[in-house]
Write a structure and sequence with these properties.
Length: 322
């Protein structure tokens, strides 16, 4: 029985990953400070005798090392997510940089492999579409707070490869493109999909940042978890970066209309808010589409759930809750 530690286990992806690993016979220890993640997300895992939950913070190295005792693989999901101009950039940088440093120090000390959850945000405003793992990372104005998230994740990637090349820590870097599920936070921290679903089901206006023509590639969580497990179990994945997600490209405004149709609503109310009011001088990323060919070649990965099918699953579940 392999032993895995998941940081940020009570988050959306972390909780689904815990369920899947337990189903596959792994022993899973999950840690989370529960500032964003919830115990409700890990309710099914808590019923499993092979799961152990510890409430702690990755910025506390002593608690982290204690939780990781005898762990063979660390899946590092815990992070402070993207922020607007009103958000706390210092918090994002501290958690994502210091916390990740603690994770890799811990991995080195116990001889564990690390699967590091990065993000498509690292590609920034690169115009090389679709995004390839060996492509350019183009970061915008340093005065825009939102770039703190992307920069902190780039730091995490560089740290991963430094530890791999200099300290012989086996690592895999996964660049997730937006994921969603019924466990998503139905606030902006969970992304635009859950926010739009909640607004449409409750006949509230949908707030769209910018003109809505910007495109995104969003994946149902099952595909993201599958890609993570494939990378976790693959020897060929060590020392590599992989895009993980869905390569369907859909604009934000078309996403709102699709949710309207799936929810069976005749009308939706939309309010457009200028990007500058939310994100300051952050340069909006017009297109975000992954090239998944490397993940397919190395891991045999391909998304199986279409964007619309994923929406239907989440909407069906959320309807029963509201």
């Amino acid at each position: 029985m392999k032993r895995v530690l998941i940081t940020g286990v009570a988050g959306m992806i972390g909780s689904h990953l815990a369920d899947e690993l337990l189903n596959r016979g792994y022993a899973v220890t999950g840690i989370d400070n529960l500032n964003v993640g919830t115990r409700k997300n890990i309710a099914s895992s808590l019923k499993n005798s092979s799961f152990k939950f510890i409430k702690c913070d990755i910025t506390d190295p002593a608690s982290l090392k204690k939780a990781a005792s005898k762990t063979e693989i660390i899946v590092h999901m815990a992070a402070s997510k993207k922020i607007g101009e009103s958000g706390d950039a210092l918090k994002t940088l501290k958690i994502n940089c210091e916390g990740t440093r603690n994770v890799f120090d811990c991995a080195k000390a116990i001889g564990a492999k690390v699967v590091f959850a990065s993000t498509s945000d690292v590609y920034g405003s690169s115009g090389d579409i679709p995004f390839r793992e060996d492509g350019r990372l183009v970061i915008g104005s340093p005065t825009a707070k939102r770039w703190a998230y992307a920069v902190s994740k780039i730091y995490g990637e560089q740290l991963a490869f430094a530890c791999y090349k200099e300290d012989n820590v086996p690592i895999v870097v996964l660049r997730y493109f937006g994921a969603f599920s019924s466990r998503s936070s139905f606030t902006w921290s969970g992304g635009h999909i859950p926010v739009f679903i909640d607004a449409v089901l409750n006949d509230r206006e949908i707030v769209i940042h910018g003109d809505g023509k910007q495109t995104r590639s969003m994946a149902y969580v099952d595909d993201v978890v599958n890609g993570t497990v494939l990378a976790l179990e693959s020897r060929k994945a060590v020392g590599e970066i992989f895009n993980i997600g869905n390569d369907e490209e859909v604009s934000v405004i078309d996403t709102a209309r699709l949710i309207q149709r799936v929810c069976g609503k005749k009308k939706i109310k939309i309010r457009f808010v200028p990007q500058s009011k939310v994100f300051g001088d952050y340069e909006e990323i017009k297109r975000r589409v992954p090239d998944l060919s490397k993940a397919k070649l190395f891991l045999g990965y391909a998304p199986k759930v279409s964007f619309e099918e994923g929406l239907r699953l989440v909407i069906k579940t959320h309807k029963h809750r509201t």
